[in-house]
Amino acid sequence: MGVQPQTEPFLVSARPDLIDARENWLKSLKNTRRLAANTLEAYERDTRQFFQFLTGHLGEPPALKDVATLRIADLRSFLARRRNDGAGARTLGRGLAGIRSFLRFLEKHGMANAAASIAMRAPRQPKSLPKPLTMVDARRVVEKGEQLNEAPWIAARNAAVLTLLYGCGLRISEALGLDGGALNDPDARSILITGKGGKTRMVPLLPVVHRAVAEYRALCPYDLEEGKPLFRGARGGELHSAIIQRDMQKMRGALGLPETATPHALRHSFATHLLGRGGDLRTIQELLGHASLSTTQVYTGVDTERLMEIYAKAHPRA
């Protein structure tokens, strides 16, 4: 059932010309752009709240002419009011998006200037990170026996890639970018990884990583020679991350794991589990290849209190 624009005067505090313009906009979103019902309801609610704000801001219900000449200061005042009422960054961002859409609709029909809303910066959104898997689930995901591929070498390949994400904290692009000559020495204790921006870092190698890669090498039907990719697609070409993501999605369903259990969540789990076992935040930063400690702090979900606790234990003058 589609949204029904609420345009009665006692629900929408605005002059008739503005109410009519908003109703036409909502109808166009529903009939032409075919937005989802939830989005339409949110846009209706956000613009209704905006009109109520303008009523107090202007001292009278707004008319079309008032919205047509909005300034950035007016929009900032509205967002400040909503923030004071407890609205978060995502709610504020969506509210601004709705107002922009309405003003662009008016501008398209020669009834307003949308420059202020376009120039207005959306509130900074909080960083969104995948939830870490439990230690038990992470171990299940990297097991060859849990992979759903019928071809043994592909199951071993996927297990090796996922083991690198969880056992070494690699990005999936870093794992898939490894050369055929990499991880060929079972006695190697570390590996040099080239990450974002061409920055390199040394990452320790666990025996389980060596075993997973060695099993893949033994089963892979292609020559994994130096100068060519270590991990191959079914036909021997370069393995793309979308394949690993798709296969993990299937495994996620089979194992009853949450939607947040993605390949990248394994890298996140690597960091979180290390920290939970007493790992040093600075060391984890280096292992992940983060440029700043603050990024690692957010990535591992460390709050300020926990961060100060870590420093208190580590700093000689604490």
Describe the structure.
The protein has 318 residues and is mainly α. The chain is built from 15 helices and 2 strands. Helix 8 (152-168) packs antiparallel against helix 10 (207-219) and helix 8 crosses helix 12 (263-276).
Q: What level of helicity do the residues show?
A: 55-70%
Mean model confidence by pLDDT: 84
| Biggest sheet overview | 2 strands, antiparallel
**Element-by-element helix/strand order:** HHHHHHHHHEEHHHHHH
Strand content: under 5%
Number of H- or I-type helical stretches:
15
Whole-angstrom Rg: 27 Å
Q: Helix/strand/pairing class, anyone?
A: mainly alpha
Q: What gross morphology would you assign?
A: elongated
Q: In total, how many beta strands?
A: 2
Kindly report how far apart the N and C termini lie: 62 Å
Strand order of the largest sheet: 1-2
Low-confidence runs:
1-10
